[in-house]
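As described in the Methods, two query proteins were run sequentially through the folding procedure within a single session, without resetting any intermediate state between them. The first query and its resulting structure tokens are shown here.
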Amino acid sequence: MANITSMSGFLLIRFSDIRELQILYALLFLVLYLLTLASNLIIIIITTVDQHLQTPMYYFLKHLSLLDLSFISVTVPQSIDNSLKDDGYMSQDQCILQVFIFTSLAWAEMAILTVMSYDRYVAICFPLHYEVIMDPTKCQGAVIAVWLSGSISGILFTAATFSITFCKAKIIHQFFCDVPQLLKLSCSNDYLRVIGVTTFVSAMAFICFISIVFSYTHIFSTVLRMPSDEGRSKAFSTCLPHLFVVSFYISTGMFAFLNPTSDSPMAVDLMISIFYTVIPPTLNPIIYGLRNEAMKEACRKLLLGRQFNKKKSQFYCC
């Protein structure tokens, strides 16, 4: 135990002590990862090359897919590699990098979901002013703000987390470097910096959540007043998938954050982390692809090798 405490890196917990089960879990993770990788890449490609998808909604969706692809790539490949090698060691530099990228992308995903809810709010509640409100410059600015705010969040979390003095056995009861688990390795009050950062980011996330609730309250109020059944159906088919994505991401994230970490490995902790880190990036492209006719048509063109119209509108191909 003394050697574990004094080593420079960290030991990540195994999913199982049985070698065969480790390989099975690695293969399951690999299947999920490849599915997520392929589906998000398809969305990124078709929203870039199909002129019918050069609108703010699909522009934001492309960045959501890019975030999802990056988000799952931070944790899952490393976990697969550790399982296949039967080695959970991660150096401190690797852990620092993983914490920075993970926390950056986690916040950026929350921010892009907020922007997407605002986009749907403007499209449904102010359709005549949509092109003016959601002009290319503002859309680009919103996306830049999403990525920059994510980077700031990552810097704050990383700086605060690794200012801690780790004096306990450096065993992390997760399949990645999780901030709450790292806090349990501290023996002093220097983790209060992380609590401060967490409180600030949580307050900002709450503001985002209120904004999303505000947007959808007005959206559904407007949709229910539509005289056309077809119009209501089209609006709901666009908004309900987004609402499901937002609800699932926020609920699993809150559950993972509020769930107290344990001093001993528990299967429920690993399951919660999987629902938070793996399932949303896997579900997002499936939900949008299966419920959106324009996306399905563009996907058929791509899979059947048909030519896209190369004409681009404004900047949304970028």
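Immediately afterward, the second query was submitted; its sequence and tokens are:
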Amino acid sequence: MIPAPLAAAGVCAAAVLLDRFLGEPRRGHPLVGFGRLAAAIERRFNPADCRDSPRARTAGLAAVFLLVAPFTLLAGLAARGAAAPLVEALLLYLAIGARSLAEHARAVATPLAAGDLPAARARVAWLVSRETEGLEEGEVAAAATESVLENGADAVFAPLFWYLLAGAPGVVLHRLVNTLDAMWGYRTGRYRRFGWAAARLDDGLGWLPARATALTYTVLGHARTALACWRWQAPAWESPNAGPVMAAGAGALRVRLGGAASYHGERRVRPRLGAGEPPRAADIGRALALVRHGIWLWLAVILAVALAGGAAGA
């Protein structure tokens, strides 16, 4: 029988390799169906005439529980017995989005490097929630770089972290809550109250993985700059998790991120992150390389810890 730590390392490696060679399912991705279900629940639980009521927060919390709890429980029940490693590898593979992130980021970098700014603006809109129509070249590169760094935490390292900590239920819990935050976690009239529970729960689940990601970027990049940016710039960022991730990532790459951006018709002046020059098209690829190298580092550490634990228990 394979020791549990080695089995867990094998599941992580299998999930990463499945994502690398297969990418996301083109049809029938479970998260697409979950998103449709979440949209239907939101329409039922968040009617227009109740969105300013304090009850909207309670309704949002109930909606999160109704959507997340059954699937998390089902994941725990499915990942039992002899087939558990296969189920865990499949669920972790579906939660990881490294290849999809790379494909979307390269679809921005390629036209941007070729001087096709309209095409780059159109493609970066797939990655970010800000308005992209009037972005200049450096702003497009910055938006894509920020997205790569932040999604490296949410869609790569956090699933691995939660699998190691809580198995298949942890993976499903985090991925579904993160999806609901992406759908409802906006400070607009529609979601300001209703999306509060999803946003706060996502912050809580992402707190440790975000700092593990920031440490990963620091180790693999310009460490001194990354540490300084993480320490001094991250606290000024609105998100408690995106701040450390993007500050450390920007410092590791020695590029300057943050600054003004428009969201839902509102222009926000965000704090500056990182150091050096504004990013260019090539820096999007450098951010992807940082995430890719981080994946291999995590797998190497997971395997080393598993082997050390097996040797100690022998």
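The beta strands are 256-263, 266-274. We note this only descriptively and draw no conclusion about the first query from it.
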